Automatic annotation (TrEMBL):
Cross-referenced InterPro entries: SecD/SecF_arch_bac, SecD/SecF_bac, SecD/SecF_CS, SecD_SecF_C, SecD_SecF_C_bact, SecF_bac
Protein's recorded name: Protein translocase subunit SecF
Swiss-Prot/TrEMBL keywords: Cell membrane, Membrane, Protein transport, Translocation, Transmembrane, Transmembrane helix, Transport
Species per Swiss-Prot/TrEMBL record: freshwater metagenome
Subcellular location(s) per record: Cell membrane
Positions of region (Disordered): 313-368
Gene3D superfamilies noted in UniProt: Multidrug efflux transporter AcrB transmembrane domain (1.20.1640.10)
Sequence intervals crossing the membrane: 27-44, 140-159, 166-185, 191-212, 250-269, 275-298
Molecular-function GO term, any one: protein-transporting ATPase activity
Ranges for domain Protein export membrane protein SecD/SecF C-terminal: 113-303
GO BP term, example: intracellular protein transport
GO cellular component assignments: plasma membrane
Membrane topology: Multi-pass membrane protein
Low complexity composition bias: residue spans: 331-352
Length: 368
């Protein structure tokens, strides 16, 4: 068996445990700091929305020669400033600008063809109206809200409402971090980004459901016993599913890393990069939140219940009484100095004498 498999078995059987729940304030502080940084970036810098959301014009030019700076200079000569120029696949330029009129687009095409030494008919132009981008944004927000509502309803039915709320907080945590990274890095937000965000929401929810299912199994009938507190049972569940969460995350991240390497290193920055970054950050944040946010938060919710508070007191009393009971048992078994040896030794002798006396009487009767 591999070392990771042996570790998983020991964690599942409770032979080895990492106390995640007891350190939950530390995890809350780390997540809070990251979320605050992302929120500040979103408030100050905002998001770099692509042309699909804001509307504008996109030029694509396939040219073996030329540089990004030359393409940007060509757009400036055509009277178009603040153009965003990207190199794709090593031999293609993607130039994004604000919405241009037909005459402005024609001037830009002519300037690009002369500067990059290509024919005008090889320069493709895509115009996206702002109304279309606004509609895409509205549908994306609507889809996100509907998804979160359905998550709460499903988890409330399948588990309980407090588990649903803990999972919802974890999902919002993952979305804020993923979107915040786009703001911090200045990455372009496109429909591919929205697809990536919605995908990682499903992944994060799956990982949280796996942990919560084990929590429910460990805490079934727990309120009527005194074997462990809710925190201890939840922490055991996290440890039992820890290796599974790590394995699932690693397997999911490997193809995402391949996408990023292919997008950035081989194919150039583009749609694959926008999708890959959202998936990578979201999967990592989802794995973190299912262990360090969702389950500890659920524990905080549950331990406010009177039944769980009473359970914690019983477990504490039992643990406190354990050492005292052991000492009392040892003191009862031990003998006081001076008498015990004689008392213990005489008892068997007396018992033996009583057992022998009836036997002698029976023999005497037979002789008569």
């Amino acid at each position: 068996m591999s070392r990771l498999g042996d570790l998983g078995n020991r964690l599942y059987r409770g032979q080895l445990q990492y106390d995640f729940i007891a350190r939950r304030r530390r995890w809350y502080a780390i997540s809070g700091l990251i979320v605050v940084i992302c929120a500040l970036s979103l408030g100050i810098r905002g998001l770099n929305f692509g042309v699909e959301f804001t509307g504008g014009t996109v030029f694509q030019v396939e040219a073996q020669q030329g540089t990004i700076e030359q393409a940007r200079t060509a757009m400036t000569k055509a009277g178009v400033n603040n153009a965003v120029v990207q190199r794709i696949n090593g031999n293609k330029f993607r130039i994004q600008t604000e919405a241009l009129t037909e005459s402005e687009r024609n001037k830009a095409v002519t300037s690009l063809s002369k500067t990059l030494s290509v024919k005008e008919d090889t320069v493709t132009v895509q115009f996206v109206g702002p109304s279309w981008g606004s509609e895409i944004t509205k549908k994306a927000v609507t889809g996100l809200v509907v998804f979160l509502i359905l998550v709460v309803i499903f988890l409330s039915i399948y588990f309980e409402f407090k588990m649903a709320m803990a999972a919802l907080v974890a999902l919002i945590h993952d979305v804020l971090i993923t979107v915040g990274v786009y703001s911090l890095l200045g990455l372009e937000v496109t429909p591919a980004t929205v697809i990536g965000v919605l995908t990682i929401l499903g992944y994060s929810l799956y990982d949280t459901v796996v942990v919560f299912d084990k929590v429910r199994e460990n805490t079934k009938g727990l309120a009527g016993s005194s074997r462990m507190t809710y925190s201890q049972a939840a922490n055991l569940a996290v440890n039992q599913t820890l290796v599974r969460s790590i394995n699932t995350s690693v397997v999911a991240l490997l193809p995402v890393v391949a996408i990023l390497i292919g997008a950035v290193g081989l194919l150039g920055a583009g749609t694959l990069q926008e999708l890959g970054v959202a998936l990578f950050v979201g999967i990592a944040a989802g794995t973190y939140s299912s262990i360090f946010i969702a389950t500890p938060l659920l524990t905080d919710f549950k331990e406010r219940e009177p039944a769980m508070q009473a359970l914690a007191r019983r477990v504490e009393q039992k643990q406190a009484a354990g050492p005292k009971a052991d000492k009392k048992a040892k003191g009862t078994a031990a003998t006081t100095p001076g008498e015990p040896v004689a008392a213990v030794a005489s008892a068997p002798a007396q018992a033996a004498g009583k057992r022998q006396q009836p036997a002698r009487k029976s023999r005497s009767k037979k002789r008569r």
